[in-house]
Amino acid sequence: MTSAASSSPEWSFVPGSFVVPEELDRAGFRLVPLRPEFNDEDYAAWQTSQAHIRDTPGFATYGWPIEMTLAQNLQDLEQHYTEFKQREGFTYSVLKGSEIIGCVYIYPSAAREPGVAEVRSWVRADHAALDRPLYEMIGSWLRDEWPFEQVRYAPRDREFELADH
């Protein structure tokens, strides 16, 4: 899942003073930046859950997942990691124990509106019951600890308001 964000001196997704979390361990989930060395596990996670991911709020009209080879997935992970390091967007692997069970994507809005983030997350089909707890944990984390004025994160079975800063 790639992003169209690019760096520009006059625009920044997050303020330069904001310390981007390198890890989050909360509510039974561990988030770490999605890195190229996770390629095999990441690929297996989404390959086995494509229909489930497409049915996850936020993905139905997004156009991902798509068929990719392991090598193409590696290129995608390298792009996400570059964007993370350049502070253009933040993709995290979701771990339960040491097992990758999903991903969280935090990116600028398509129109690059200042202070607005668009967020998507998914979990593997065999961990579907964890989608809602992950969604709520991510929503609280973004609302309480990130510098966004508005977070657009497709609601699950009820609206989870994230714009109340």
What is this entry, summarized?
With 165 residues, the protein is of the alpha+beta class.
Task: Write structural notes for this entry.
The chain is α+β, with helices and mostly antiparallel strands and 165 residues long. The chain is 27% helix and 22% strand. The protein has 4 helices and 6 strands; from the N terminus they run ββαααβββαβ. The chain has helices at 39-47, 50-54, 70-85, 131-145; strands at 24-26, 29-33, 90-96, 99-108, 116-123, 150-153. Mean pLDDT is 88; it is low at 2-8 and 158-165.
Assign the structural class, choosing from mainly alpha, mainly beta, alpha/beta, alpha+beta, or little secondary structure. alpha+beta
Shape: globular
Return the average pLDDT rounded to an integer: 88
State which percent range the strand residues make up: 15-25%
Number of DSSP helices?
A: 4
Strand arrangement, major sheet: 1-2-3-4-5-6
User: How many β strands by DSSP?
Assistant: 6
Fraction of residues in helices? 25-40%
Report, as a whole number of angstroms, the end-to-end distance.
28 Å
SSE succession? EEHHHEEEHE
Quick one: biggest sheet? 6 strands, mixed
Rg computed from alpha carbons, rounded to a whole number of angstroms = 15 Å
Low-confidence stretches: 2-8, 158-165
